[in-house]
Amino acid sequence: MISCVSLSSGRASVRRNRPACLPLTLALASAFGGLALLPLAAQAQAAATASAPAAATLDETVVTANRTPQALSDLVGDVSVIDRKTIERSGATGVADVLARLPGMEISRSGGVGNATSVFIRGAESRFTAVYLDGVRIDSQSTGGAGWEGIPLAQIDRIEVLRGPAAAVYGSDAVGGVIQLFTKRGEEGVSPYAGIGFGSHGLRRIEGGVSGKSGLLDYSFGVAHEESKGFNIQPIAKRTPSKDGFTNPDRDGYRSTSGNLKLGFQITPDQRIDATLLTSNTEAAYDPSVSFRTKPPITFRNDLSTNELRTAGLTWSAKWNDIYSTRLQVTDSQTVYKTQPSFYRTETRLRGYLFQNEFRFGAHLVTATLERREDVLENAPTTSAKLFSRDRSQNAAALGYGYVKGPHSLQLHVRHDDDSEFGGKTTGSAAYGYAITPSLRATVSAGTAFRAPTLYQRFSEYGLASLQPESSRNVELGLQYTAGATQAGIVLYRNRVQNLIVFDGSAKGCQSSFGCYASTARARYQGVTLTGGHRIGDVTLRASLDYQDPRDLATDHLLARRARAHGTLGADWRIAGWTLGAELQSSGKRYDDAANTVKLGGYTLLNLSASKQIMRDLNLVARVDNVGDKDYQFARLYATGGRTAYVGLKWTPQ
Predict the structure, then answer these.
(1) Fewer beta carbons below 10 Å: N end or C end of the chain?
(2) Are the CB atoms for 48 and 98 separated by under 8 Å?
(3) Which pTM does this prediction carry?
């Protein structure tokens, strides 16, 4: 659990920065000293969650690590699981805020919820994470990476996070890890729900839906709306050559509306069809880069960004016998980002086809996969500029082998992707786990990964068609311990990236006077993640600590907006029907720029939470984030939320 985040809404004034991260770093080190005296520990396989004591049990089934259902205890990968109860207790308004409380995770945001957001796994670029929603790939062919600000947390029922490269399973983009988001699936009976919530800065939230199962059909439907008056996300004036430069002092709010539908039909006991639909629209206000005075009185203008997300998927799965099963899937996603009145619009459409075969022979599992991905980008920088439109496709074939028996776990994968633009790329991975004792397990893994340049990076006015895929080599070691109420662990990793794409003002062959993208940089992401948890009676303790070195090897500078150390220390107490939680989140200093000249101070936050079933069908959640009202920034000149409070009620008939 990491990355100190408290970002629901904010404060219009700027407060003086106070000392930040050292106290919690010392506290975390002390806590780990105590936990280490317990037998060593179960790494991220204990789902380190945002504000709840619940951890994923080792017999829980996950699908993200190898793209096939597998018990958590059999995995060699570094995986965390977040369930719906944890999401609700967190009081968070964005998916990124929930993720930021996990081990190895950090976020960056330019203002409040709805504004540009990045998610870093083990310090890797935001575009180095492959993101799926109900099996549908989400990505941008302009900047690269998922638009986290446009993914509706209200519709998410479960999150699985794999830390570490997985291109040999998923293809392009999975350099730092994979995040899978799942909406709710209907269960036996009929289960309606409705909820309302209120928070700081005029936050209002309402949601409702129904799920269930009748005979061969299961279903789930949900809608949600959320809005906030927000806060002034840029309270510090941006000075310009003009003496008449000002910033807009107003509040920058947001509103989000989303809905999803999931249907499942059990054709026969061994064949099933699933269909999913999701739509989301998020609008967020932001200040234009400069506001100017033309004549008294001063007038200001607010710009509005809009993120639209639509996903659809259709899956047919069949188990032909005890040995052979298949899965056929067609998916489609559309992401649109646009701004007004300062016009900009970019749209990415992804179409995916997957045919996966599984062969099980006792302790052996063999997978053979064919996959095709089609990308389309349309980009319009102004209303008068010529529309930029480009498409490409990738075809892939992959083989996987898994073996789990006794103390041994083995995973082998190889995959070849052929891109219609740059050609072929082969990746592979090997992972082995050995149970030294029934409680103590060691793991080792190595793998290669890549990310193909985006269409914008290659063919826009700032692009170079000669760009090569960013490629990486990763190795990691882990030691995990799980015994009764005690869980803890350690993971050491090193991931080196070649052909890292950066914006270069002197790029050769560039047609733009401002510069172009170039694949000339190198990066290294290395570090250690410590996690631990212990239950004492009705109290559950949990902690995580990350020491990392995400570095540009060409300049020997730290990569922007990533800290050398970050961590979380939390406790949950069940008493008289209440679940009370306290959590410290801390991050060290970071730099806002690649040259490491603009420093972002470290910070430590205290978050408090409480939840209770106050009536048979009614649940209460209350939360105060950043109790000390700490002033900190994820990006220079952009404020964060200050102290925020949230209270929510949810009706779920039993």
Answers:
(1) C
(2) no
(3) 0.89
